[in-house]
Amino acid sequence: MGKPIRVLVVDDSALVRKLLTEVLNSIEGIEVVGTAQDPYVARERIKSLDPDVLTLDVEMPRMDGLTFLRNLMRLRPMPVVMVSSLTERGAEVTMQALELGAVDFVTKPALDLANTLNAYRDELAAKVRVAAGARVRTLAAVKPKHSVDEILPAKAVGHWRTTDRLLAIGASTGGTEAVKDVLIDLPPDSPAVVIAQHIPAGFSGAWAQRMNRQSRLVVKEAEEGERLMAGHAYVAPGDQHLMVARDGARYVCRLNMAEPVNRHRPSVDVLFRSVAQAAGKNACAALLTGMGADGVQGLKELHDMGVETIAQDEATSVVWGMPGEAVKRGAASQVLPLERIAEAMLKASRVR
Questions:
Q1: Count of domains in the chain?
Q2: Torsion angles phi and psi, residue 78, rounded to 5
Q3: Cα(206)–Cα(208) distance, rounded to whole angstroms?
Q4: Which residue among 84, 104, 198, 264 is the active-site one?
Q5: Is the pLDDT of residue 147 over 50?
Q6: How far apart, in whole angstroms, are the C-alpha atoms of residue 18 and residue 326?
Q7: Considering 11, 57, 294, 313, which one is annotated as catalytic?
Q8: pLDDT at 151
Q9: CheB-type methylesterase domain: which residues (predicted)?
Q10: Are 152 and 120 within one domain?
Q11: Is 189 a catalytic residue?
């Protein structure tokens, strides 16, 4: 066994600090080296304790979590897992935190944690371990916002390109930012985009709204039965599988609450397989940063049909689990850095 992952817990609630400390200390290979009730105390504890990972409350007195995270990622970047409440405000702030460089997030532990302890411990352990090995960028290196046209999506004018072409994207850990970066680089007349990102139900709507403001596409949560249109991106709602089906000459969204696949709902494999069946060679698919192997089988099925398939490269991935496994299994036609994926997908969509 190597050295344990050293965690600093930052939260203004003494009860939450106690619960997180107890849960983390019960996990093999993880050790809480200290706690802090606000960012000012956290700043001193970071200097003296040099933790490997920080768990950070979203809303705190004296200095809010976002301001502290912004300063931290600018001056001393380190892996951060946000701890957020499942509220509309919590979702919005959490999306901003991921944009600033936080690796991932977990919900605040429930007061009756005993009823869900094992599941919460497993989720927390996985995310802290991934954070400990993540490549953290300084805030200055985070891709800046583009023009106002990209922040306020353009409206459809004239005619749309045919929806016969389809772009599919799957991602997990680190994907909320990676998917956004791909969408920002797509033009307003892009083929329709369908997205499966591992994200809880309480956060997928806020994430879609944030991408809608920053992209030239219209980005929204997918709805059952709606037609896919060029210039639009459709996000799988948290805790639902998103599939693409044919309705005559059009593609439509199908949602269901079937069992998780690869422990995930939405599952990238479910989406990619439905794309293979509904769109075939009219599709192009990309598998981005993420832990595990969800999406690898679906990407391989698309690749074997002659569909252009793309895996994000290791250097630009927060976690090279899913795309790395795709490369290992021969599922990727191309292995590209994040900044080249949108261009490659567009090029592939123009060629049958």
A1: 2
A2: -150, 160
A3: 5
A4: 198
A5: no
A6: 40
A7: 294
A8: 24
A9: 160-352
A10: no
A11: no
CA dihedral 315, 316, 318, 321 (to 10 degrees): -70
Angle (CA) 6 9 12, round 5°: 170
C-alpha span between 150 and 183 (Å, rounded): 10
Calculate the dihedral angle through the C-alpha atoms of 21, 25, 29, 35, rounding to the nearest 10 degrees: 30
Q: What is the pLDDT of residues 240-250, one digit of tens each?
A: 999 999 888 89
**Domain final position from 126, 141, 156:** 141
List all residues 6 or more positions away from 159 whose beta carbon is below 8 Å from its beta carbon: none
If asked whether residues 64 and 188 sit together in one domain, one would say no
Name, in order, each residue with C-beta under 8 angstroms of 104's C-beta and a sequence gap of 6 or more. Answer: 81, 82, 98, 127, 130, 131, 173, 174
- Round to whole Å and give the CA distance between 12 and 245: 47
**CA 269 to chain CA mean position, Å:** 16
The CATH number of the domain holding residue 126 is 3.40.50.2300
Same structural domain for residues 191 and 131?
no
Range of the domain at 166: 148-349
Q: Are residues 100 and 183 in the same domain?
A: no
Q: Is 198 a catalytic residue?
A: yes
- 222 in the same domain as 137: no
Percentage of the chain surpassing pLDDT 90? 66
The reply to whether 113 and 197 lie within a common domain is no
Does 260 share its domain with 330?
yes
What average pLDDT does the structure give for the chain?
87
What's the pLDDT score for residue 87? 59
State how far the Cα of 219 lies from the Cα of 216, in Å rounded to an integer.
Answer: 9
Least Cα distance to 84 among 202, 173, 176, 180 occurs for 202
Q: What is the CATH number of the domain that holds 278?
A: 3.40.50.180
- Whether 146 has a pLDDT exceeding 50, the answer reads no
Helices (H), the chain: 14-25, 39-49, 65-75, 88-100, 117-132, 148-151, 175-184, 201-214, 268-278, 296-304, 322-328, 341-349
Domain final position from 77, 111, 141 = 141
Nearest by Cα to 160 from 89, 232, 109, 215: 232
User: Known catalytic residue: 172?
Assistant: yes
Confidence of residue 139 (pLDDT cuts 50, 70, 90): low
The first and second tokens of residue 203, run together, are 């956060």
Catalytic residue among 11, 57, 172, 303: 172
| Alpha-carbon span 43 to 159, nearest angstrom | 54
